[in-house]
Design a protein that fits this description.
Elements: H1 2-24, H2 30-52, H3 55-62, H4 65-92, H5 95-102, H6 105-117, H7 124-143
Helix pairs in contact: 4-5
Length: about 140
């Protein structure tokens, strides 16, 4: 059950980050914020790789063209998603509403896992969770601001 608490912790941190970003976006553009956040992530990861001595192993993994293509594609997807949520969604509404709508990403995760990799990552309990997420999004869309 450790995965559950780790995922919940990540959700709490994302919520905290969205709240901070809502205020930050009043002073910086989405691209400026993304650039600075990327620089911080790069710096922390670089220190980690130097400290752990894992940089050579990481570079070896990138020598595989398929893995390199997937990590580049994933990077562009995250950049586009970050710009959409920062530039348009949080700025046009608020952090709470944007986070509620964005919370439907598990539905897309199941869909893309099936389309791209042929994996069905769905069971009865998770399907019920997806229906609850979808219901919440519909309620926010109909009755929200």
């Amino acid at each position: 059950m450790t995965w559950f608490w780790l995922a919940l912790g990540a959700a709490a941190l994302w919520g905290f980050g969205y709240t901070i970003n809502q205020v930050t976006l009043k002073h910086f553009s989405a691209v400026e914020l993304l650039l600075f956040e990327s620089f911080v992530v790069f710096s922390v990861a670089a220190v980690y790789f130097i400290w752990r001595g894992d940089f050579h192993a990481f570079m070896h993994k990138l020598a595989n063209p398929k893995q390199l293509a997937l990590i580049i594609l994933s990077s562009f997807v995250y950049i586009a998603a970050s710009l959409l949520i920062l530039k348009k969604s949080i700025s046009a509404s608020n952090a709470a509403l944007a986070a509620i709508i964005e919370s439907c990403y598990p539905i897309f995760t199941v869909l893309f896992a099936f389309i791209l990799f042929g994996e069905l990552q769905l069971n009865l309990i998770s399907a019920l969770g997806y229906l609850l997420i979808l219901s919440g999004i519909i309620i926010v869309k109909i009755y929200g601001h």
